[in-house]
Write a structure and sequence with these properties.
5-stranded parallel β-sheet; 4-stranded antiparallel β-sheet
Length: about 230
């Protein structure tokens, strides 16, 4: 897989590139936001994943993520020292598919890269002609992966859409956290639990319907159909 590493520290980039190469990745190193954006022309330039460090010298990392998402659907994994939930949600709202908090374990990073690439391949293969899901003012177009609320399009990341679509297929049914992680993230890795919480919070905020996804304490989540 081709991977675009966006990192301004050459020593960090060299060490990480060596590790990634040993695991079969073809790494291209961009030292700034502008280099990264140029490398992704045209339409992602064949990269399977973008590993984006937020501490860049020329542009804010969040701004770079937003620009990347406008140009390509290539999955973006943010690398950040900011561990608070608000920062993570902000990154997801801008189109990031996942995040890794510094200092991170290399095994964790590799697991997240592989998980993102597996989801992308699965989604591309599974797209078909299924009907739309209607939930009050919410319409979920499964073939085009588009969500609208009262006719207005809501921009969701891949994982946000998958999570919403899963819950929406069985409204009112409680999905256990382990089941959601297995079906959306396609892993049983325990570290994904916090990611699930962040994505639920992000969905509630983007849809502006905090009551749409109900937390069932100690169990998981369910979708509550809003009144028409």
């Amino acid at each position: 897989m081709r991977l675009l590493l966006v990192e301004d520290d050459n020593h960090v980039a060299a060490a990480l590139s060596a590790v990634l190469a040993r695991h079969g990745f073809d790494v291209t190193h961009a030292r700034s936001g502008e280099e990264a954006l140029q490398a992704l022309v045209p339409e992602g330039a064949g990269f399977g994943v973008v590993l984006l460090d937020l501490g860049l010298p020329d542009q804010d990392g969040y701004e770079v993520c937003s620009k990347i998402r406008k140009r390509t659907s290539t999955p973006v994994i943010m690398v950040t020292a900011r561990s608070d939930v608000r920062s993570r949600i902000h990154g997801l709202n801008l189109g990031a598919d996942d995040y890794v908090v510094k200092p991170y374990d290399t095994g964790e990073l590799l697991a997240r890269i592989h998980a993102v690439s597996r989801r992308t391949a699965h989604e591309d293969a599974a797209s078909g002609g299924e009907a739309a899901l209607l939930l009050g003012p919410v319409r979920i177009e499964l073939p085009t992966r588009q969500v609208t609320v009262e006719g207005s399009v809501v921009q969701l990341t891949r994982k946000e859409f998958d999570l919403l679509a899963l819950l929406a297929q069985r409204p009112g049914v409680v999905f256990r956290r382990e089941q959601i992680i297995s079906e959306v993230w396609r892993t049983s890795w325990e570290g994904t639990g916090r990611t699930l919480e962040v994505h639920v919070a992000s969905l509630r905020a983007k849809l502006r319907m905090p009551a749409l996804i109900e937390t069932v304490r100690g169990v998981g989540y369910r979708l509550v159909v809003p009144a028409a």
